[in-house]
Amino acid sequence: MRKEQQGGAAAVALPAVRRTGPNGPGGEKEPAGPGAGKAPAGKAGKAGRTRGSLMSRRHGRWGWLFVSPMVIVLGLFLLLPILMALWVSLLHWDGQSNPFSSAADFVGVRNYTDLFGSSGGLNHQLFMISLRNNLYYVVLVVPLQTVLALGLALAVNSRRLKRKGPLRTAFFFPSVTSSIAISTVFLFLFQGSGAVNALLKWVGITGPKWFTDAHGLVWTVLGGLGLVDPNKPVHALAAHSVLGLSWWDWLAGPSIAMCTIIVLAVWTTSGTFMLMFLAALQDVPAELEEQARVDGASRWQSLRHVTLPALRPVIFLVLTLGLIGTWQVFDAVYVMSQGAPGNTTLTPAYLSYTSGFQDSDYGHAAAIAFILLAIIMLMTLVQRVLLRERGEHPGRVRRLLGRNR
Fold first, then answer.
1. Contacts of 295 (CB under 8 A, 6+ apart)
2. Which own/partner pairs from 339-343 qualify as long-range (CB within 8 Å, at least 24 positions apart)?
3. Is residue 209 classed as helix, strand or coil in its secondary structure?
4. Which of 11, 241, 285, 328 sits in a 20 to 30 Å window from 35, CA-based?
5. Exposed e or buried b for every residue in 39-69, given b needs 16+ CB within 10 A?
6. Residue 1: count of CB within 10 angstroms of its CB
7. What region, left, alpha or beta, does residue 246 occupy, with left being phi > 0 and alpha being psi -120 to 50 degrees?
């Protein structure tokens, strides 16, 4: 009995074995533990990475195959025309011959130096005037349309407001109306004997000459107050110039005709941006606003420290689209003024059009277009840096609220 018990204990203590030799019992014995028969971990990992890289390359090839039609279309109708236009900007070309033949006169960067040079030529002077006018347009339109769109979105998103659907439609309707039609209507409204001057006459105000007065708004207002004479520039400002224009011209402000176009642009674009802000406001978690109210924040503090930081990506999108649209303004200028009065509504986009299709100078027209592209990209980059995401401490809102109490 003792021997049998000892033999059983020994049988239990010994590990199980299996024969792996080719001749059965004569083969080598190996333990049949949990890790038996498995490849080493290093080799298994290497094999897995190899299979993963092969699958990734296979998926990449299939992905490029599926998107290749769109890549070809974009290359033919977007990238190739851009490269052709860049080549045209280096030519003196009238549009009547093949720009890739010897008939086109290659002038290099002379088209660009004529626009920015200090020679005082007509192209340089008109381009500087158009940049000044467009800068006024951008500085006024982009902030106004952004603030108005955000205000409309906050009003429509308010819980206290009822029947929001008709208001959304009313605010968005100008954005889907033809810009040519709206420009024509504004042209009739702001004529010398138009409806706007008629309404001003009822209240005892003599309306301005909207599309015939070439004075800047700043000097017109100061002249009305008796501080300056708009027809006699101040010598200290007229004696110094920047980029071919005197300080008097730079500080004159937009003309009354340009102000009319600015009003039209703000009215017609705020509806689209309102929908963008409204969609973003509806995605802001209600818990953040409730927490701000619990912490004692007012509506302005909640808007400043909770809502606006949550809307930063949408604000960047709205500002970027606003910059692109305002630097490319053309249709309203073409319909309402065509640069008049006195080139105070001339913009680079309209100047590019007249240089190419009226003066047959397609080289200068293409150069203006690429300068506009560079300006838009530069301003978008600066805006991206200013609105970049910054790390915020979780208690930042509470600290700011405590500081403002």
1. 397, 398, 401
2. 340/211, 340/257, 341/211, 341/212, 341/213, 341/214, 341/255, 341/257, 342/214, 342/255, 343/126, 343/129, 343/130, 343/133
3. coil
4. 11
5. eeeeeeeeeeeeeeeeeeeeeeeeeeeeeee
6. 5
7. beta
How far apart CA 195 and CA 25 sit, in angstroms, is 112
Q: What six digits make up the tokens of 68?
A: 């290749």
Q: What integer pLDDT is reported at residue 14 of this predicted model?
A: 42
Within 13 Å, how many C-alpha atoms sit on residue 37's CB side? 6
Sign of CA pseudo-dihedral 271, 338, 212, 247: positive
CA atoms within 13 A on the CB side of 353: 14
Region of poorest pLDDT, from 70-74, 98-102, 215-219, 315-319:
98-102
Cα–Cα dist 314/279, whole Å: 9
Q: Is the dihedral of CA 380, 383, 385, 391 positive or negative?
A: negative
**Is the distance from CB of 28 to CB of 20 less than 8 angstroms?**
yes
pTM of the model: 0.79
Distances, alpha carbon 279 to alpha carbons 45, 153, 157, 244, in Å: 47, 9, 9, 45
What's the Rg (C-alpha) of the chain? 35
Element (H, E) at 29: strand 29-31
> Are 368 and 328 contacting, i.e. CB atoms less than 8 angstroms apart?
no
- Location of structure tokens 């006018």: 133
Q: Is the pLDDT assigned to residue 70 strictly greater than 80?
A: yes
> 23 is written with which tokens?
């001749």
Angle at 126 between CA 125 and CA 130, to 5 degrees: 120
Q: What 8-state DSSP symbol labels residue 284? A: S
What is the C-alpha to C-alpha distance for residues 56 and 100, in angstroms, rounded to an integer? 42
pLDDT in tens, 273-301: 999 999 999 888 877 777 777 777 777 88
Quick one: the chain helix, strand, coil %, rounded to 5? Answer: 65, 5, 30
Q: Which of 141, 78, 105, 113 is nearest to 371 (CA)?
A: 113
Residue 105: beta bridge partners? 92
Per the CB < 8 A criterion, the answer to whether 219 and 252 are in contact is yes
On the question of a cis peptide bond just before residue 341, with omega within 30 degrees of 0, the verdict is yes
Continuous segment of H or E residues that includes residue 374: helix 362-386
Amino acid (one-letter) located at 316? F
